[in-house]
Amino acid sequence: MGRWRDGAQCAVMLTFDLDAETLWLAGSLERRERIGLLSQGTYGARVGVPLILHTLRRYELKATFFVPGWVAEHHPDVVAAIVDQGHEIGHHGYLHESVTELSSEEERAVLERGIEALRRVTGIVPRGYRSPSWELTTRTLQLLEEYGFRYSSNLMSHFLPWQHPDTRLIELPVQWLLDDAPFFLFRTGPGSRPIQPAQVAFQAWAEEFQGIYRFGGLFNLTMHPQLIGRPGRILMLERFFEHLLSYPRVWFATGQEVAEYWAAHVAANPEEWRQGLVYDPLRHRS
């Protein structure tokens, strides 16, 4: 039997970073007049999200959507539809700011502004936090603890969760390999990368899932509605869901469900989690 709920061998988190226009604004409204550039983000909110919600309903799967506060304010009906379908809402900054470029006071203000925007639009106070670009400062974890967050999903130190020392925060690890942006995000100008066929992402994700499944880990897939929400990629996503569902004893869960289960289970059965691991996440110090 596996280490996850009801003896599942592997836990799967389906997560979507609903950046919308903020991906291109990147913490500043200076580019708000670049309508063509921002339209890529508008597509994600207005077209990508409905296609994703339809697909999740079809396969009866729950997901976690990390939403910047600005997006909740400017696309409240889209965010409401996510909540109405029973998915989790997590914090993703306010205007997709890079926290490493903020002062201590600015980082606190952005966190508060994002919390308030999500609370005002959805009635929900988020318990999960994903920083834009997965960057943290030396202050971030203390702020998350202070504001009552339950988990962070930003670091790449393992494929199993761990608890941050001296906090209640559970880390739900991510990886660029399990993100659609390296395959599909295209920017004009220097430094752009070629767009990959959807099958390339399918193959990479399927290979990594097979490995994580074998070792009983957490498969935390990060997607962006403006990228994965293109029609051809939605068809690939359907095939990928079918691939995941073909495996026995897989637990599909939201970030909050994974964090709560992991914390309770590790507290009760610490030795079970150490079995078969080359590296022990319980002794990890971030």
UniProtKB/TrEMBL annotation:
- Note the Pfam families from the entry: Polysacc_deac_1
Q: Does the keyword Ion transport apply?
A: no
Highest taxon above the source species: Bacteria
The protein's GO terms of the molecular function aspect are: hydrolase activity, acting on carbon-nitrogen (but not peptide) bonds
Leader sequence segment: none
Which residues does the UniProt record annotate as the domain NodB homology?
33-253
Cross-referenced InterPro entries: Glyco_hydro/deAcase_b/a-brl, NODB_dom, PgdA-like
> Do the record's keywords include DNA-binding?
no
Keywords, ordered alphabetically = Plasmid
What's an example Gene Ontology biological process for this entry? Answer: carbohydrate metabolic process
Q: What is this protein called?
A: Polysaccharide deacetylase
